[in-house]
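Annex B. Sample input.
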Amino acid sequence: PLLASAHESSCIRLWSIQGNLMKELLPFAGRPSGPLTALCTDIFTKILLTGSKEGYVFRWNMASFLEDSRNIKNAIKEELCWRAHASEVVDLFIEEEKNVVVTASIDGSVRLWHARTGYYFGFFGQARKFDLTDTSRLILPSDVSGFSAIIKEESKHTEKKKIIYPLILDRDK
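Annex B, continued. Sample output.
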């Protein structure tokens, strides 16, 4: 068992069921994330999704880490990032049978996305039916201007490190 918590500092903390901190993560520095407002996992806890105050969704692969969390080589990999809403994501979940992520925002919209690619399928209340089979059409909601970004494996996400900066008075400066 594993517990995950999302924080205003954009930090994700993974805890053992005994309450021990196992890992601290920050989303990839190349994308603005802001405070994290929602998180969920798939049924097997292999995929972690987080939503942010700025409307971004981040997809993390935790499979190798969960196999052996003590092995440093088994890192949690940030795989995908996309702008889902123009405002805060308040809830999200993954529907594994259809391979869909559902996001909700404070703007009142609920949207569907392809779980592996971040492609937009549409929003609840639209006139047309959802076409969940065609992921080749790159469409975006009207308030979002950027496509999903695949995080390359060689890109390093930032791990929160404890660094102490002593305050020293430098009269010359």
